[in-house]
Design goal:
alpha+beta, 4-stranded antiparallel beta sheet
């Protein structure tokens, strides 16, 4: 193949790449600082003891007795329910709006 022809073909192939700008554009998302007066988490964190939960969140509305082995205990607060294994939090869940409304009927 003719060297001049090869150089011409190579130039044609590389020309679109060379015409693309080398700079990149990006959007910037600014999120304002949110300050809260309450520094405790919305729900008790896993691993907290019953006494710590009661100190931080107050007396529960209902303390259900332990069931099973290992013992699982459920405490109900206004907006959430906490489940304990022995005396440690294993999970906390938000109460359903549907459940709250149906209890009132």
């Amino acid at each position: 193949m003719n060297p001049k022809l090869s150089a011409f073909i190579l130039t044609l192939l590389l020309l679109p790449i060379m015409l693309v700008p080398a700079t990149a554009n990006a959007d910037v998302l600014l999120i304002p600082d949110v300050e809260t007066s309450d520094t405790r988490p919305e729900f008790p964190q896993n691993g907290l003891s019953m006494s710590t939960v009661q100190q931080q969140y107050g007396e529960p509305l209902i303390k259900h007795p332990a069931i099973g082995e290992p013992p699982i205990t459920r405490w109900e607060y206004q907006d959430f329910t906490v489940f304990f294994e022995n005396d440690k939090v294993i999970t906390a869940v938000q109460k359903s709006q549907h459940t709250e409304n149906s209890d009132k009927e």
